[in-house]
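Action item from last week, closing it out:
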Amino acid sequence: MTRAAPLPLSCGSLLFPVEIPGLEDPSCSQGNVACSLVSRSRSRTPTAPPTAALTTQCEVPPGCSQLLADVHALKRQCGAGADELARRLRAAGYQATCHAQDASRSAPGAMRLAHSFVVVKGCGPDPVVVDAGFRDNFSIGTAYATARYLQVLEAVPEVMIAPHAQLQELVTAICHEMKISFEATGSFLPPWRITGSVLSRWAAARAL
């Protein structure tokens, strides 16, 4: 009896779906049922992403316009490293501190992700989180990103400056769109991509 050829690993596993960063869309044959399901689910993806709402949530707080300009300038000089960025912001006269945490499992189904960011005080009524690589936290492989999600990601700022409450609203909205994108491509949402896990990156700012 002739055995059927196994499915290529790039098409994923129905039993063990994983996210592989940078994975491109597989070339699917007509007989590949899994890829056919992905194709049909993509066609059902909503076509109007809430970019206007995201733009509002990304607005720079009053009094932080100069801080944003300085962060962009410093990022061009020294990159997006939080520790060095905080040091240079302090040298420029800002009350800036670097916050860093290690990864761990914080709750069933959620994870605390390793991350570093800067908190600046004195530019407004509330301390603000400064993340010079904010958009990178939401990049996903092309096999999981719909056209809608790519539009959403385009609306997310590269540098984010916001109080923690505003940051939390924005991250929750982006994670909702990410979940829709994974589902539309017939993919499993990894635990490090759920809202609680992603929000954990900036958990240290809640107490400020």
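Closing note: Residues 5-18, 20-45 have pLDDT under 50 and may be disordered.
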